[in-house]
Amino acid sequence: MANSTNKPVKIGLVGLGKIAVDQHIPAIRANPNLELVAGCSPHARPEGVVGYSDMQAMLAAHPEIEALAICTPPQVRHRIAKEALAAGRHVFLEKPPAATLGEAEALRDFAAERGVTLLASWHSRFAPAVGATRDWIAQRALKSIHVVWKENVRQWHPGQAWIFAPGGMGVFDPGINALSILTRIVGDTVVVKKADLHIPVNCDAPIEVGMDMVTEGGVPVRADFDFLQENLQTWSIFVEAEDGGKLALSMGGTILEIDGKPVMQEPEREYPGLYAHFHELIASGASDADFSPLRIVADAFMLGKRIAAPAYVE
Ligand code: NAP
């Protein structure tokens, strides 16, 4: 069901927490092809947004809403997205697209059946240096890849108890951003071979992960994720080519160095890019639902060794 008029697409937000306020609201407002109509959330009421306590109340008051962005924690995303698709609305899923692969695939099939757009968003893929990294890799045989994603959960996720609950994914919540870049820059399937999942004794999701993967072409990929990193925060991917070339993509994909020399440093503009993509998908009646980063996380949980870590206290 493409939007063939030139009028802005009317959007409703579901879940008005940190990411909705920091990124979705400003990105929608800055895009002339989109119009933020209202939002809903059990408690949060950001200033300047017409608010409701749940999605059905919002849609009853604003039947003109054509598309919904689901910015809740992942555990409730499938139920809400299914209701949104059933109501004939286009859907933008925050990452991760659902709590399980089964839920994500069911949403993709249901969106196709309903003839509406589904975007399984991966914001890190819109970081400025991701395209140049993909091009550099496409021209070379690779020797190895090392992903290092280390941040301080207390700094970036204060009060977000859902993150260590079942389905919250723990350190895979940021780590899946690295995996979304990895699966975009490597034009090959990446499979998990070994994963060490360090899970605090009072939590249900890992706080630290060390993972060995390999591309189907045989390139080893190591990933180290840590949620207790203090001081310097690291969101980097290091690639080594067979010809000796070295690439470093850092600060979440905003800085690119090749053979030790800086070649790109640009400000982060992920959400404006994501919303432009969502609008294009709606205008052309298409969907974009790639679950390969979620599959790697699912495989890590399936294959991983669980190691008890000290209790986590916020
Ligand atoms: P958050 O600050 O905890 O916000 C989540 C919001 O969802 C809360 O405001 C909560 O409501 C609301 N909510 C919970 N259940 C709901 C329901 N049934 N219906 C409607 N709203 C509901 O979390 P966040 O950091 O924004 O993260 C949300 C998602 O965005 C996660 O999947 C995360 O991975 C992703 N994300 C986060 C970041 C980041 O930097 N934080 C970056 C990119 C993507 P109330 O507060 O009203 O109770």
Write a concise keyword list for the protein shown above.
single chain; 314 residues; alpha/beta; Rossmann fold; Dihydrodipicolinate Reductase, domain 2; 2 domains; 9-stranded mixed beta sheet; 6-stranded parallel beta sheet; 9 helices; binds NADP nicotinamide-adenine-dinucleotide phosphate; Gfo/Idh/MocA-like_OxRdtase_N; L-arabinose 1-dehydrogenase (NADP+); NAD(P)-bd_dom_sf
Write the layout of secondary structure elements.
Layout lengths: L8 E6 L3 H12 L4 E7 L10 E2 L2 H7 L5 E4 L6 H10 L3 E4 L7 H14 L3 E3 L9 H9 L3 E9 L2 H4 L15 H14 L4 E11 L7 E8 L4 E7 L7 E8 L4 E5 L4 E4 L2 E5 L4 H15 L7 H12 L1 E5 L5
Parallel strand pairs: 1-2, 1-4, 2-3, 4-5, 5-6, 7-10, 8-15
Antiparallel strand pairs: 7-11, 8-9, 9-10, 11-12, 12-13, 13-14
The site of NADP nicotinamide-adenine-dinucleotide phosphate has 24 residues, from helix 1.
Give an account of the 3D structure.
The chain has helices at 18-29, 55-61, 77-86, 101-114, 130-138, 153-156, 172-185, 270-284, 292-303, and strands at 9-14, 34-40, 51-52, 67-70, 90-93, 118-120, 142-150, 190-200, 208-215, 220-226, 234-241, 246-250, 255-258, 261-265, 305-309. By secondary structure, the protein is α/β, with parallel strands linked by helices. It has 2 domains: 9-120, 3-Layer(aba) Sandwich (Rossmann fold); 124-268 and 298-309, Dihydrodipicolinate Reductase, domain 2 (2-Layer Sandwich), CATH 3.30.360. Strands 14-13-12-11-7-10-9-8-15 form a 9-stranded mixed beta sheet. A 6-stranded parallel beta sheet has the order 3-2-1-4-5-6, with helices on both faces. Helix 3 (77-86) runs parallel beside helix 4. The radius of gyration is 20 Å and the shape is globular. It starts with 8 loop residues before the first strand and ends in a 5-residue tail after the last strand. 45% of the residues are buried. The structure holds NADP nicotinamide-adenine-dinucleotide phosphate (NAP). NADP nicotinamide-adenine-dinucleotide phosphate binds next to helix 1.
